[in-house]
Design goal:
- The protein has a single domain, classed as Phosphoribosyl-AMP cyclohydrolase (Ubiquitin-like (UB roll), Roll).
- The strands form three sheets. Strands 2-1-6-5 form a four-stranded mixed beta sheet, covered by helices on one side. A two-stranded antiparallel sheet has the order 3-4. It has a two-stranded antiparallel sheet with strand order 7-8.
- The chain is globular.
- By secondary structure, the protein is mostly beta strands.
C-alpha cells in the first residue's frame, strides 16, 4: 500500500494541516493539502499546500519568499489531520501569515471581543510584489 493511501482524505480529497514552528512550538498556520501537495512536500522538504480560494497548488513562500522547511510530518491517530513541524524561512523572526505577522493566530478573545496581540513584522505591501 502507498503511504498516501493510509490517509483519510475528506470528500474533496483534502487533508487539514497544522504548521507548527519546530523551534518555538508556535502554531503558525492552518491549511489543506491534497494528495499531490503532500507528495510534493515529502519530495521537496518544503511545504506545498492546496489553495481552496485559488483552486491550485500553493508552494508556501512562492510569492512572499517565506518558505517553510519541513523538519517532520506527523499524522494524527485517526489519519485525518497532519502536523508539519517546520522552520519558517525568509525573515527573522519567521513570518508565516500574509498579514506580515509571525503566526496567522494573532487574535485573542478577551472581554467579549477579538484583540490583535501580535505585531505586524513587515508590511504586506513590502512582501507581495
Amino acid at each position: 500500500m502507498d503511504w498516501l493511501d493510509a490517509i483519510k482524505w475528506d470528500a474533496q480529497g483534502l487533508l487539514p494541516v497544522i504548521a507548527q514552528e519546530a523551534g518555538s512550538g508556535d502554531v503558525l498556520m492552518f491549511a489543506f493539502m491534497n494528495r499531490e501537495a503532500l507528495a510534493r512536500t515529502a519530495a521537496t522538504g518544503q511545504a506545498v499546500y492546496w489553495s481552496r480560494s485559488r483552486q491550485k497548488l500553493w508552494h508556501k513562500g512562492e510569492e512572499s519568499g517565506h518558505f517553510q522547511q519541513v523538519q517532520e510530518m506527523r499524522l494524527d491517530c485517526d489519519n485525518d489531520v497532519l502536523l508539519l513541524k517546520v522552520t519558517q524561512l525568509g525573515h527573522e523572526p519567521g513570518i508565516a501569515c500574509h498579514t506580515g505577522r509571525h503566526s496567522c493566530f494573532f487574535q485573542r478573545y478577551e472581554d467579549g471581543a477579538w484583540q490583535t496581540v501580535e505585531p505586524v513584522l513587515v508590511d504586506p505591501e513590502h512582501i507581495y510584489r
